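dumping the sequnces here before i forget
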Amino acid sequence: MVALARKTLVHEWRRFLPAILAVGFASLLQLLQAALVLGIFGSASVYITGSSGDLWAGYPGTQSVNLGRPISEDIAMRLRMDPDVTKVEPFRWVDADWRGPRDTGGVSVFVSGIDTSPDALMFSKALPPALRARLNEPGAVIVDKADLDSLGVTIGDTAAINGQRVRVVGVSSGLRALGGVNIVSSLDTARVLDVAPEDAGMMTYFVAKLRDPSKAKAVAQRLNGSDAFGPYTVWTAKDFARQSQLYWMLDTGAGAGVLFLAGIVFLVGAVITSQTLIAAVIGSIREYATLNALGVGRGALRKVIMEQAFWVGLLGIVCSVVIGIVLLIIARNRSVPMELHPLTAAACLTLSMALAIVSGLAAMRSLRRADPASLLR
Amino acid sequence: MSVSFQTSPGTSPTLQASGVRKSFVSGRVESTVLHDLTLDVRGGELTLISGPSGCGKSTLLAILSGLQPADGGKVHALGHELSGMSMRALEHFRLQHTGFVFQGFNLFPALSALEQVELPLSYMGLDKTTARKRAIDSLEEVGLGPRMSLRPAELSGGEKQRVAIARALAKQPELLFADEPTSALDAANGQIVIDILHRIARNHGTTVLCVSHDPRLVGHADRVLAMEDGRILSDHVPDVSQPAAPEAKEPSA
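..and the predicted 3d for all of it:
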Protein backbone atom coordinates (compact mmCIF):
# COMPACT_ATOMS: atom_id res chain seq x y z
CA MET A 1 0.00 0.00 0.00
CA VAL A 2 1.39 3.38 -0.96
CA ALA A 3 1.40 5.55 2.18
CA LEU A 4 -0.39 8.45 0.53
CA ALA A 5 -1.45 10.14 3.77
CA ARG A 6 1.98 10.08 5.35
CA LYS A 7 3.91 10.99 2.21
CA THR A 8 1.60 13.93 1.56
CA LEU A 9 2.02 15.07 5.15
CA VAL A 10 5.80 15.01 4.86
CA HIS A 11 5.91 16.54 1.39
CA GLU A 12 3.40 19.30 2.13
CA TRP A 13 4.31 19.85 5.77
CA ARG A 14 3.92 23.59 5.40
CA ARG A 15 0.29 23.08 4.54
CA PHE A 16 -0.30 20.91 7.59
CA LEU A 17 1.81 22.91 10.02
CA PRO A 18 -1.05 25.15 11.27
CA ALA A 19 -3.08 22.06 12.14
CA ILE A 20 -0.18 20.43 13.94
CA LEU A 21 0.49 23.63 15.87
CA ALA A 22 -3.20 24.02 16.71
CA VAL A 23 -3.38 20.51 18.14
CA GLY A 24 -0.04 21.04 19.86
CA PHE A 25 -1.07 24.28 21.52
CA ALA A 26 -4.48 22.94 22.51
CA SER A 27 -2.82 19.89 23.99
CA LEU A 28 -0.18 21.96 25.79
CA LEU A 29 -2.81 24.30 27.21
CA GLN A 30 -4.88 21.41 28.51
CA LEU A 31 -1.82 19.77 30.04
CA LEU A 32 -0.55 22.91 31.74
CA GLN A 33 -3.99 23.89 32.92
CA ALA A 34 -4.54 20.47 34.42
CA ALA A 35 -1.07 20.48 35.99
CA LEU A 36 -1.58 23.93 37.45
CA VAL A 37 -5.04 23.21 38.82
CA LEU A 38 -3.93 19.91 40.29
CA GLY A 39 -0.80 21.54 41.66
CA ILE A 40 -2.60 24.45 43.25
CA PHE A 41 -5.50 22.48 44.64
CA GLY A 42 -3.19 19.62 45.52
CA SER A 43 -1.62 21.95 48.07
CA ALA A 44 -5.01 22.10 49.81
CA SER A 45 -4.31 18.58 51.00
CA VAL A 46 -0.56 18.83 51.53
CA TYR A 47 -1.11 18.20 55.28
CA ILE A 48 -2.53 14.79 54.38
CA THR A 49 -0.43 13.87 51.35
CA GLY A 50 2.79 15.04 53.05
CA SER A 51 2.12 12.79 56.04
CA SER A 52 2.10 9.03 56.43
CA GLY A 53 -1.06 8.63 58.49
CA ASP A 54 -3.61 6.14 57.13
CA LEU A 55 -6.64 7.52 58.97
CA TRP A 56 -7.71 11.00 59.95
CA ALA A 57 -10.17 11.71 62.72
CA GLY A 58 -11.68 15.18 62.92
CA TYR A 59 -14.78 17.21 63.64
CA PRO A 60 -17.90 15.64 62.09
CA GLY A 61 -18.69 16.85 58.60
CA THR A 62 -15.43 18.73 58.05
CA GLN A 63 -15.37 19.48 54.32
CA SER A 64 -11.73 20.40 53.92
CA VAL A 65 -8.68 19.88 56.09
CA ASN A 66 -8.24 23.64 56.63
CA LEU A 67 -11.75 23.86 58.12
CA GLY A 68 -11.06 21.60 61.10
CA ARG A 69 -12.52 22.38 64.53
CA PRO A 70 -11.30 21.26 67.92
CA ILE A 71 -12.16 17.72 68.97
CA SER A 72 -11.86 16.00 72.29
CA GLU A 73 -8.66 14.29 73.41
CA ASP A 74 -10.80 11.24 74.22
CA ILE A 75 -11.11 10.42 70.56
CA ALA A 76 -7.42 9.52 70.51
CA MET A 77 -8.30 6.89 73.13
CA ARG A 78 -11.07 5.53 70.96
CA LEU A 79 -8.65 5.19 68.04
CA ARG A 80 -6.01 3.49 70.16
CA MET A 81 -8.57 0.94 71.30
CA ASP A 82 -8.90 -0.42 67.80
CA PRO A 83 -6.71 -3.51 67.34
CA ASP A 84 -5.61 -2.47 63.84
CA VAL A 85 -4.33 0.93 64.94
CA THR A 86 -0.62 0.93 65.81
CA LYS A 87 -0.05 4.62 66.42
CA VAL A 88 -2.11 7.75 67.03
CA GLU A 89 -0.72 11.23 66.78
CA PRO A 90 -2.37 14.63 67.39
CA PHE A 91 -2.34 17.48 64.88
CA ARG A 92 -3.17 20.98 65.95
CA TRP A 93 -4.30 23.54 63.40
CA VAL A 94 -4.20 27.21 64.42
CA ASP A 95 -5.43 30.07 62.25
CA ALA A 96 -3.17 32.95 63.18
CA ASP A 97 -1.86 36.37 62.28
CA TRP A 98 1.79 36.95 61.40
CA ARG A 99 3.79 40.11 61.97
CA GLY A 100 7.23 39.98 60.41
CA PRO A 101 10.30 42.05 61.20
CA ARG A 102 10.02 43.82 57.85
CA ASP A 103 7.08 45.88 56.73
CA THR A 104 4.81 43.15 55.40
CA GLY A 105 1.63 44.07 57.23
CA GLY A 106 -0.48 41.30 58.69
CA VAL A 107 -0.24 37.92 56.98
CA SER A 108 -2.81 35.24 57.56
CA VAL A 109 -0.97 32.04 58.48
CA PHE A 110 -1.93 28.45 59.30
CA VAL A 111 0.14 27.01 62.08
CA SER A 112 0.51 23.25 62.01
CA GLY A 113 1.45 21.92 65.42
CA ILE A 114 3.05 18.52 64.97
CA ASP A 115 4.83 15.78 66.87
CA THR A 116 8.54 16.43 66.47
CA SER A 117 9.84 12.91 67.14
CA PRO A 118 11.83 11.43 64.24
CA ASP A 119 9.31 8.70 63.49
CA ALA A 120 6.22 10.94 63.71
CA LEU A 121 3.51 10.68 61.07
CA MET A 122 2.75 14.35 60.41
CA PHE A 123 4.74 15.82 57.51
CA SER A 124 6.98 12.77 57.51
CA LYS A 125 7.34 13.16 53.73
CA ALA A 126 7.95 16.91 53.82
CA LEU A 127 10.29 17.41 56.78
CA PRO A 128 13.48 15.40 57.32
CA PRO A 129 14.12 14.30 60.96
CA ALA A 130 16.98 16.78 61.48
CA LEU A 131 14.82 19.73 60.49
CA ARG A 132 11.95 18.39 62.55
CA ALA A 133 14.20 18.16 65.64
CA ARG A 134 14.89 21.90 65.48
CA LEU A 135 11.23 22.50 66.28
CA ASN A 136 11.80 21.26 69.84
CA GLU A 137 13.17 24.65 70.76
CA PRO A 138 10.27 26.71 72.21
CA GLY A 139 8.92 29.22 69.70
CA ALA A 140 10.72 27.59 66.80
CA VAL A 141 8.90 27.53 63.43
CA ILE A 142 9.61 26.31 59.92
CA VAL A 143 8.25 28.09 56.85
CA ASP A 144 8.21 27.16 53.18
CA LYS A 145 11.10 28.66 51.25
CA ALA A 146 8.67 30.03 48.67
CA ASP A 147 6.93 32.04 51.42
CA LEU A 148 10.05 33.73 52.85
CA ASP A 149 9.43 36.87 50.82
CA SER A 150 5.78 37.28 51.69
CA LEU A 151 6.60 36.74 55.37
CA GLY A 152 9.54 39.13 55.15
CA VAL A 153 11.96 36.86 57.00
CA THR A 154 15.04 34.72 56.48
CA ILE A 155 16.30 31.82 58.58
CA GLY A 156 17.17 32.95 62.10
CA ASP A 157 14.84 35.93 62.06
CA THR A 158 12.23 36.43 64.74
CA ALA A 159 8.63 37.46 64.18
CA ALA A 160 5.32 37.43 66.03
CA ILE A 161 2.40 35.07 65.59
CA ASN A 162 -0.78 36.09 67.41
CA GLY A 163 1.46 38.38 69.44
CA GLN A 164 3.78 35.57 70.55
CA ARG A 165 7.45 35.62 69.63
CA VAL A 166 8.63 32.94 67.21
CA ARG A 167 11.93 32.25 65.46
CA VAL A 168 12.39 30.81 61.98
CA VAL A 169 14.70 27.81 62.43
CA GLY A 170 14.54 26.37 58.95
CA VAL A 171 12.78 26.22 55.61
CA SER A 172 10.91 23.41 53.92
CA SER A 173 9.85 22.98 50.33
CA GLY A 174 6.52 21.84 48.93
CA LEU A 175 4.48 23.10 51.89
CA ARG A 176 2.78 26.04 50.21
CA ALA A 177 -0.77 26.63 51.30
CA LEU A 178 -3.92 27.88 49.64
CA GLY A 179 -5.25 31.23 50.84
CA GLY A 180 -2.46 31.80 53.33
CA VAL A 181 0.95 30.66 54.49
CA ASN A 182 1.83 27.41 56.22
CA ILE A 183 3.89 27.57 59.39
CA VAL A 184 5.07 24.36 61.07
CA SER A 185 5.80 24.22 64.77
CA SER A 186 5.86 21.71 67.62
CA LEU A 187 2.63 20.88 69.42
CA ASP A 188 3.81 22.85 72.41
CA THR A 189 4.57 25.96 70.41
CA ALA A 190 1.22 25.66 68.66
CA ARG A 191 -0.56 25.48 72.01
CA VAL A 192 1.13 28.73 73.07
CA LEU A 193 0.21 30.39 69.78
CA ASP A 194 -3.43 29.31 70.00
CA VAL A 195 -4.98 32.20 71.85
CA ALA A 196 -8.63 31.21 71.50
CA PRO A 197 -9.76 30.17 75.00
CA GLU A 198 -12.23 27.56 73.86
CA ASP A 199 -9.46 25.65 72.07
CA ALA A 200 -7.48 25.07 75.24
CA GLY A 201 -6.33 21.49 75.45
CA MET A 202 -8.17 20.56 72.25
CA MET A 203 -6.59 19.07 69.16
CA THR A 204 -7.90 19.55 65.64
CA TYR A 205 -7.18 16.09 64.24
CA PHE A 206 -5.86 12.74 65.29
CA VAL A 207 -3.86 10.88 62.71
CA ALA A 208 -3.57 7.11 62.97
CA LYS A 209 -1.24 4.53 61.54
CA LEU A 210 -2.59 1.09 60.73
CA ARG A 211 -0.97 -2.29 60.90
CA ASP A 212 -2.24 -2.99 57.39
CA PRO A 213 -2.87 0.23 55.41
CA SER A 214 -4.91 -1.66 52.82
CA LYS A 215 -7.63 -2.15 55.45
CA ALA A 216 -8.00 1.62 55.94
CA LYS A 217 -11.49 1.78 54.48
CA ALA A 218 -12.86 -0.99 56.65
CA VAL A 219 -11.27 0.35 59.83
CA ALA A 220 -12.54 3.87 59.15
CA GLN A 221 -16.05 2.50 58.70
CA ARG A 222 -15.80 0.54 61.96
CA LEU A 223 -14.52 3.55 63.91
CA ASN A 224 -17.30 5.77 62.60
CA GLY A 225 -19.85 3.58 64.35
CA SER A 226 -20.15 5.25 67.74
CA ASP A 227 -20.18 8.70 69.30
CA ALA A 228 -19.46 7.48 72.82
CA PHE A 229 -16.22 9.45 73.03
CA GLY A 230 -17.64 12.65 71.58
CA PRO A 231 -18.54 13.67 68.05
CA TYR A 232 -15.99 12.86 65.36
CA THR A 233 -15.62 11.43 61.87
CA VAL A 234 -12.84 9.18 60.62
CA TRP A 235 -11.69 9.37 56.99
CA THR A 236 -9.05 7.44 55.13
CA ALA A 237 -6.17 9.74 54.21
CA LYS A 238 -6.96 9.31 50.51
CA ASP A 239 -10.63 10.23 50.89
CA PHE A 240 -9.91 13.23 53.08
CA ALA A 241 -7.25 14.53 50.69
CA ARG A 242 -9.60 14.21 47.71
CA GLN A 243 -12.44 15.79 49.66
CA SER A 244 -10.26 18.77 50.55
CA GLN A 245 -9.13 19.27 46.97
CA LEU A 246 -12.66 18.98 45.61
CA TYR A 247 -13.88 21.44 48.21
CA TRP A 248 -11.39 24.03 47.01
CA MET A 249 -12.00 23.33 43.37
CA LEU A 250 -15.77 23.71 43.71
CA ASP A 251 -15.70 26.41 46.36
CA THR A 252 -13.53 28.70 44.26
CA GLY A 253 -15.37 27.92 41.03
CA ALA A 254 -12.09 26.77 39.56
CA GLY A 255 -13.60 23.45 38.51
CA ALA A 256 -16.16 25.14 36.28
CA GLY A 257 -13.48 27.52 35.02
CA VAL A 258 -11.25 24.63 34.03
CA LEU A 259 -14.04 22.89 32.15
CA PHE A 260 -15.05 26.10 30.43
CA LEU A 261 -11.49 26.83 29.34
CA ALA A 262 -11.00 23.25 28.17
CA GLY A 263 -14.12 23.64 26.04
CA ILE A 264 -12.87 26.90 24.49
CA VAL A 265 -9.43 25.45 23.80
CA PHE A 266 -11.04 22.40 22.20
CA LEU A 267 -13.31 24.55 20.04
CA VAL A 268 -10.60 26.92 18.82
CA GLY A 269 -8.21 24.05 18.17
CA ALA A 270 -10.85 22.12 16.26
CA VAL A 271 -11.74 25.12 14.09
CA ILE A 272 -8.13 25.76 13.08
CA THR A 273 -7.34 22.08 12.59
CA SER A 274 -10.44 21.31 10.57
CA GLN A 275 -9.97 24.39 8.37
CA THR A 276 -6.38 23.38 7.66
CA LEU A 277 -7.35 19.82 6.86
CA ILE A 278 -10.20 21.01 4.65
CA ALA A 279 -7.75 23.25 2.76
CA ALA A 280 -5.45 20.26 2.31
CA VAL A 281 -8.30 18.13 0.97
CA ILE A 282 -9.43 20.87 -1.41
CA GLY A 283 -5.83 21.33 -2.54
CA SER A 284 -5.73 17.71 -3.68
CA ILE A 285 -9.34 17.44 -4.73
CA ARG A 286 -8.57 16.76 -8.42
CA GLU A 287 -6.20 13.97 -7.49
CA TYR A 288 -8.78 12.43 -5.19
CA ALA A 289 -11.38 12.75 -7.94
CA THR A 290 -9.01 10.98 -10.34
CA LEU A 291 -8.56 8.13 -7.89
CA ASN A 292 -12.33 7.93 -7.58
CA ALA A 293 -12.64 7.83 -11.38
CA LEU A 294 -10.20 4.94 -11.38
CA GLY A 295 -12.54 3.15 -9.00
CA VAL A 296 -10.97 3.88 -5.60
CA GLY A 297 -14.04 4.12 -3.37
CA ARG A 298 -15.08 7.12 -1.29
CA GLY A 299 -14.58 5.08 1.85
CA ALA A 300 -10.94 4.47 0.98
CA LEU A 301 -10.42 8.18 0.29
CA ARG A 302 -12.05 9.08 3.61
CA LYS A 303 -9.61 6.75 5.29
CA VAL A 304 -6.72 8.72 3.79
CA ILE A 305 -8.12 11.94 5.29
CA MET A 306 -8.63 10.31 8.68
CA GLU A 307 -5.13 8.93 8.60
CA GLN A 308 -3.83 12.43 7.93
CA ALA A 309 -5.88 13.74 10.85
CA PHE A 310 -4.45 11.03 13.06
CA TRP A 311 -0.86 11.88 12.14
CA VAL A 312 -1.55 15.59 12.63
CA GLY A 313 -2.93 14.77 16.08
CA LEU A 314 0.00 12.56 16.96
CA LEU A 315 2.60 15.12 15.86
CA GLY A 316 0.78 17.87 17.76
CA ILE A 317 0.66 15.73 20.89
CA VAL A 318 4.35 14.87 20.64
CA CYS A 319 5.18 18.59 20.35
CA SER A 320 3.02 19.42 23.36
CA VAL A 321 4.49 16.63 25.48
CA VAL A 322 8.06 17.75 24.77
CA ILE A 323 7.33 21.42 25.48
CA GLY A 324 5.13 20.46 28.43
CA ILE A 325 7.91 18.46 30.09
CA VAL A 326 10.34 21.35 29.68
CA LEU A 327 7.83 23.80 31.19
CA LEU A 328 7.01 21.45 34.06
CA ILE A 329 10.69 21.17 34.91
CA ILE A 330 11.09 24.95 34.84
CA ALA A 331 7.97 25.34 36.99
CA ARG A 332 9.21 22.82 39.52
CA ASN A 333 12.55 24.61 39.83
CA ARG A 334 10.70 27.81 40.55
CA SER A 335 8.35 26.32 43.16
CA VAL A 336 5.31 26.85 40.95
CA PRO A 337 2.82 24.29 42.19
CA MET A 338 2.32 21.99 39.21
CA GLU A 339 1.44 18.38 39.34
CA LEU A 340 0.53 15.97 36.59
CA HIS A 341 -0.58 12.40 37.09
CA PRO A 342 -0.22 9.94 34.22
CA LEU A 343 -3.98 9.45 34.15
CA THR A 344 -4.69 13.18 33.88
CA ALA A 345 -2.03 13.57 31.22
CA ALA A 346 -3.54 10.66 29.30
CA ALA A 347 -6.98 12.28 29.52
CA CYS A 348 -5.61 15.60 28.20
CA LEU A 349 -3.80 13.88 25.33
CA THR A 350 -6.87 11.80 24.48
CA LEU A 351 -8.88 15.00 24.31
CA SER A 352 -6.32 16.47 21.90
CA MET A 353 -6.45 13.37 19.72
CA ALA A 354 -10.25 13.59 19.77
CA LEU A 355 -9.85 17.18 18.56
CA ALA A 356 -7.78 15.97 15.59
CA ILE A 357 -10.23 13.17 14.81
CA VAL A 358 -13.25 15.49 14.96
CA SER A 359 -11.41 17.87 12.61
CA GLY A 360 -10.71 14.96 10.28
CA LEU A 361 -14.40 14.08 10.25
CA ALA A 362 -15.21 17.68 9.36
CA ALA A 363 -12.61 17.66 6.58
CA MET A 364 -13.99 14.40 5.24
CA ARG A 365 -17.16 16.19 4.25
CA SER A 366 -15.31 18.27 1.69
CA LEU A 367 -14.41 15.06 -0.15
CA ARG A 368 -17.90 15.28 -1.60
CA ARG A 369 -16.48 17.81 -4.01
CA ALA A 370 -14.22 15.12 -5.45
CA ASP A 371 -16.56 14.45 -8.35
CA PRO A 372 -14.68 12.72 -11.16
CA ALA A 373 -17.18 14.04 -13.73
CA SER A 374 -15.93 17.53 -12.90
CA LEU A 375 -12.52 16.55 -14.27
CA LEU A 376 -13.95 16.24 -17.78
CA ARG A 377 -13.67 19.53 -19.59
CA MET B 1 0.82 3.18 -39.26
CA SER B 2 -1.55 0.45 -40.24
CA VAL B 3 -5.15 1.33 -40.27
CA SER B 4 -7.52 -1.10 -41.89
CA PHE B 5 -11.16 -1.96 -42.04
CA GLN B 6 -10.74 -4.88 -39.67
CA THR B 7 -12.41 -2.62 -37.15
CA SER B 8 -15.63 -2.74 -39.09
CA PRO B 9 -18.47 -5.25 -38.50
CA GLY B 10 -17.33 -8.55 -37.10
CA THR B 11 -15.71 -7.36 -33.89
CA SER B 12 -18.41 -7.16 -31.29
CA PRO B 13 -18.78 -3.82 -29.51
CA THR B 14 -17.47 -3.55 -25.95
CA LEU B 15 -19.28 -0.32 -25.25
CA GLN B 16 -22.81 0.43 -26.41
CA ALA B 17 -25.03 3.39 -25.91
CA SER B 18 -28.60 3.37 -27.10
CA GLY B 19 -30.94 6.32 -26.96
CA VAL B 20 -28.80 8.12 -24.37
CA ARG B 21 -30.22 11.45 -23.33
CA LYS B 22 -28.82 14.05 -21.00
CA SER B 23 -29.84 17.55 -20.15
CA PHE B 24 -28.75 20.08 -17.59
CA VAL B 25 -30.90 22.57 -15.81
CA SER B 26 -29.50 25.91 -14.87
CA GLY B 27 -32.05 28.14 -13.28
CA ARG B 28 -35.20 27.74 -15.30
CA VAL B 29 -33.42 26.95 -18.53
CA GLU B 30 -33.10 23.30 -19.42
CA SER B 31 -30.50 22.64 -22.09
CA THR B 32 -30.24 19.24 -23.72
CA VAL B 33 -26.64 18.14 -24.17
CA LEU B 34 -27.19 14.70 -25.70
CA HIS B 35 -30.13 13.90 -27.98
CA ASP B 36 -31.06 10.19 -28.05
CA LEU B 37 -27.57 9.20 -28.93
CA THR B 38 -26.81 5.66 -30.10
CA LEU B 39 -23.28 4.43 -30.49
CA ASP B 40 -21.12 1.28 -30.56
CA VAL B 41 -17.44 1.30 -29.64
CA ARG B 42 -15.27 -1.71 -30.43
CA GLY B 43 -12.30 -3.17 -28.64
CA GLY B 44 -8.74 -3.09 -29.94
CA GLU B 45 -9.10 0.28 -31.58
CA LEU B 46 -8.71 3.92 -30.74
CA THR B 47 -11.99 5.70 -31.21
CA LEU B 48 -11.85 9.46 -31.27
CA ILE B 49 -14.84 11.65 -30.56
CA SER B 50 -14.12 15.09 -31.90
CA GLY B 51 -16.14 18.23 -32.04
CA PRO B 52 -16.20 21.82 -30.91
CA SER B 53 -16.33 22.59 -27.24
CA GLY B 54 -19.79 22.39 -25.76
CA CYS B 55 -20.93 19.75 -28.25
CA GLY B 56 -21.48 17.25 -25.44
CA LYS B 57 -18.53 14.97 -26.08
CA SER B 58 -17.21 15.10 -22.50
CA THR B 59 -20.69 14.42 -21.17
CA LEU B 60 -20.90 11.44 -23.48
CA LEU B 61 -17.58 10.17 -22.15
CA ALA B 62 -18.75 10.63 -18.56
CA ILE B 63 -21.88 8.61 -19.25
CA LEU B 64 -20.12 5.85 -21.20
CA SER B 65 -17.51 5.45 -18.47
CA GLY B 66 -20.00 5.33 -15.63
CA LEU B 67 -18.95 8.63 -14.05
CA GLN B 68 -22.37 10.19 -14.60
CA PRO B 69 -25.82 8.73 -15.04
CA ALA B 70 -27.79 9.42 -18.22
CA ASP B 71 -31.31 10.84 -18.03
CA GLY B 72 -32.56 8.19 -20.43
CA GLY B 73 -31.37 5.37 -22.59
CA LYS B 74 -29.05 2.49 -21.84
CA VAL B 75 -25.32 2.03 -21.58
CA HIS B 76 -23.80 -1.43 -21.89
CA ALA B 77 -20.16 -1.80 -21.02
CA LEU B 78 -18.47 -5.21 -21.25
CA GLY B 79 -21.87 -6.83 -20.88
CA HIS B 80 -22.81 -4.81 -17.78
CA GLU B 81 -25.77 -2.48 -17.80
CA LEU B 82 -24.44 0.70 -16.21
CA SER B 83 -27.71 2.64 -16.05
CA GLY B 84 -29.15 0.99 -12.97
CA MET B 85 -25.98 0.50 -10.95
CA SER B 86 -25.47 2.02 -7.51
CA MET B 87 -22.59 4.40 -6.87
CA ARG B 88 -20.68 1.69 -5.09
CA ALA B 89 -21.24 -0.84 -7.87
CA LEU B 90 -20.09 1.72 -10.41
CA GLU B 91 -16.94 2.37 -8.39
CA HIS B 92 -16.28 -1.34 -8.33
CA PHE B 93 -16.88 -1.61 -12.06
CA ARG B 94 -14.49 1.27 -12.73
CA LEU B 95 -11.89 -0.22 -10.41
CA GLN B 96 -11.94 -3.54 -12.22
CA HIS B 97 -12.39 -2.50 -15.84
CA THR B 98 -11.57 1.10 -16.62
CA GLY B 99 -8.67 3.49 -16.90
CA PHE B 100 -8.83 7.27 -17.21
CA VAL B 101 -6.55 9.91 -18.61
CA PHE B 102 -7.57 13.53 -18.11
CA GLN B 103 -6.43 16.79 -19.59
CA GLY B 104 -4.90 17.80 -16.26
CA PHE B 105 -2.49 15.16 -15.08
CA ASN B 106 -3.84 15.09 -11.52
CA LEU B 107 -0.78 13.54 -9.94
CA PHE B 108 -0.16 13.67 -6.18
CA PRO B 109 2.79 16.05 -5.64
CA ALA B 110 4.15 13.91 -2.83
CA LEU B 111 4.42 10.65 -4.76
CA SER B 112 7.07 9.43 -7.19
CA ALA B 113 6.00 8.29 -10.65
CA LEU B 114 6.18 4.68 -9.51
CA GLU B 115 4.01 5.35 -6.45
CA GLN B 116 1.43 7.23 -8.55
CA VAL B 117 1.02 4.14 -10.68
CA GLU B 118 1.08 1.72 -7.75
CA LEU B 119 -1.53 3.64 -5.76
CA PRO B 120 -4.70 2.50 -7.59
CA LEU B 121 -3.29 -0.99 -7.91
CA SER B 122 -3.05 -1.37 -4.16
CA TYR B 123 -6.79 -0.64 -3.95
CA MET B 124 -7.47 -3.39 -6.51
CA GLY B 125 -6.29 -5.93 -3.98
CA LEU B 126 -3.06 -6.82 -5.76
CA ASP B 127 -0.19 -7.93 -3.58
CA LYS B 128 2.82 -5.65 -3.27
CA THR B 129 5.11 -7.51 -5.64
CA THR B 130 2.52 -7.85 -8.39
CA ALA B 131 1.56 -4.19 -8.06
CA ARG B 132 5.20 -3.11 -8.16
CA LYS B 133 5.90 -5.26 -11.23
CA ARG B 134 2.84 -4.05 -13.10
CA ALA B 135 3.67 -0.43 -12.28
CA ILE B 136 7.24 -0.80 -13.52
CA ASP B 137 6.08 -2.55 -16.71
CA SER B 138 3.57 0.19 -17.44
CA LEU B 139 6.06 2.98 -16.83
CA GLU B 140 8.52 1.24 -19.13
CA GLU B 141 5.82 0.86 -21.74
CA VAL B 142 5.27 4.63 -21.78
CA GLY B 143 9.02 5.18 -21.89
CA LEU B 144 9.53 6.41 -18.33
CA GLY B 145 11.55 3.49 -17.01
CA PRO B 146 14.56 5.63 -16.08
CA ARG B 147 12.47 8.39 -14.50
CA MET B 148 10.08 6.43 -12.35
CA SER B 149 11.53 7.62 -9.05
CA LEU B 150 10.90 11.29 -9.82
CA ARG B 151 8.10 13.39 -8.39
CA PRO B 152 5.70 15.38 -10.61
CA ALA B 153 7.62 18.61 -9.94
CA GLU B 154 10.67 17.05 -11.57
CA LEU B 155 8.83 15.86 -14.69
CA SER B 156 7.86 17.74 -17.85
CA GLY B 157 4.23 18.09 -18.91
CA GLY B 158 4.54 15.31 -21.45
CA GLU B 159 6.17 13.03 -18.91
CA LYS B 160 3.45 13.76 -16.39
CA GLN B 161 0.79 12.80 -18.88
CA ARG B 162 2.70 9.59 -19.61
CA VAL B 163 2.70 8.83 -15.86
CA ALA B 164 -1.07 9.40 -15.88
CA ILE B 165 -1.37 7.00 -18.82
CA ALA B 166 0.81 4.43 -17.05
CA ARG B 167 -1.42 4.81 -13.97
CA ALA B 168 -4.44 3.91 -16.11
CA LEU B 169 -2.62 1.26 -18.09
CA ALA B 170 -1.23 -0.62 -15.07
CA LYS B 171 -4.76 -1.53 -14.06
CA GLN B 172 -4.90 -3.54 -17.31
CA PRO B 173 -8.32 -2.11 -18.08
CA GLU B 174 -10.56 -3.32 -20.90
CA LEU B 175 -11.81 0.24 -21.29
CA LEU B 176 -9.52 3.24 -21.38
CA PHE B 177 -11.06 6.70 -21.46
CA ALA B 178 -9.06 9.78 -22.34
CA ASP B 179 -10.43 13.31 -22.14
CA GLU B 180 -8.43 15.89 -24.10
CA PRO B 181 -5.22 14.05 -23.26
CA THR B 182 -3.07 16.27 -25.49
CA SER B 183 -4.62 19.68 -24.97
CA ALA B 184 -2.09 20.76 -22.38
CA LEU B 185 0.89 19.48 -24.35
CA ASP B 186 3.07 20.76 -27.19
CA ALA B 187 3.07 19.08 -30.59
CA ALA B 188 5.88 16.62 -29.92
CA ASN B 189 4.54 15.48 -26.58
CA GLY B 190 1.01 15.34 -27.95
CA GLN B 191 2.28 13.07 -30.67
CA ILE B 192 3.98 10.77 -28.17
CA VAL B 193 0.87 10.56 -26.02
CA ILE B 194 -1.51 9.74 -28.84
CA ASP B 195 0.92 7.15 -30.18
CA ILE B 196 1.02 5.48 -26.79
CA LEU B 197 -2.78 5.44 -26.57
CA HIS B 198 -2.98 3.95 -30.04
CA ARG B 199 -0.40 1.32 -29.20
CA ILE B 200 -2.31 0.36 -26.05
CA ALA B 201 -5.42 -0.28 -28.14
CA ARG B 202 -3.48 -2.44 -30.58
CA ASN B 203 -1.25 -4.38 -28.23
CA HIS B 204 -3.62 -4.96 -25.36
CA GLY B 205 -6.88 -5.14 -27.27
CA THR B 206 -8.13 -2.31 -25.08
CA THR B 207 -11.12 -0.22 -26.05
CA VAL B 208 -9.64 3.28 -26.10
CA LEU B 209 -12.19 6.06 -26.25
CA CYS B 210 -10.65 9.45 -26.64
CA VAL B 211 -12.45 12.77 -26.59
CA SER B 212 -10.67 15.75 -28.12
CA HIS B 213 -11.04 18.80 -30.24
CA ASP B 214 -7.36 18.58 -31.16
CA PRO B 215 -7.25 18.15 -34.97
CA ARG B 216 -3.77 16.61 -34.78
CA LEU B 217 -5.25 13.46 -33.30
CA VAL B 218 -7.64 12.67 -36.13
CA GLY B 219 -5.02 10.98 -38.28
CA HIS B 220 -4.01 8.70 -35.42
CA ALA B 221 -7.43 7.32 -34.63
CA ASP B 222 -8.85 4.11 -36.01
CA ARG B 223 -12.25 5.66 -36.09
CA VAL B 224 -13.44 9.21 -35.76
CA LEU B 225 -16.87 10.28 -34.58
CA ALA B 226 -17.65 13.90 -35.21
CA MET B 227 -20.10 15.42 -32.77
CA GLU B 228 -22.00 18.65 -32.78
CA ASP B 229 -24.86 19.89 -30.64
CA GLY B 230 -25.31 16.61 -28.85
CA ARG B 231 -25.54 14.50 -32.00
CA ILE B 232 -23.06 12.40 -33.92
CA LEU B 233 -22.68 13.90 -37.35
CA SER B 234 -20.26 11.48 -38.92
CA ASP B 235 -18.56 8.16 -38.24
CA HIS B 236 -15.60 7.39 -40.44
CA VAL B 237 -12.15 5.91 -40.71
CA PRO B 238 -9.65 8.67 -41.24
CA ASP B 239 -7.57 8.86 -44.37
CA VAL B 240 -4.10 7.64 -43.47
CA SER B 241 -2.35 9.38 -46.31
CA GLN B 242 -2.89 12.81 -44.80
CA PRO B 243 -2.82 12.25 -41.01
CA ALA B 244 -3.28 15.72 -39.67
CA ALA B 245 -4.79 17.44 -42.64
CA PRO B 246 -6.79 20.52 -41.74
CA GLU B 247 -9.80 19.31 -43.71
CA ALA B 248 -9.99 16.28 -41.43
CA LYS B 249 -10.69 18.71 -38.60
CA GLU B 250 -14.39 18.95 -39.12
CA PRO B 251 -15.53 16.06 -41.22
CA SER B 252 -18.95 16.33 -42.66
CA ALA B 253 -21.28 13.43 -42.81
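Confidence is low (pLDDT under 50) at residues 1-10, 242-253 of chain B.
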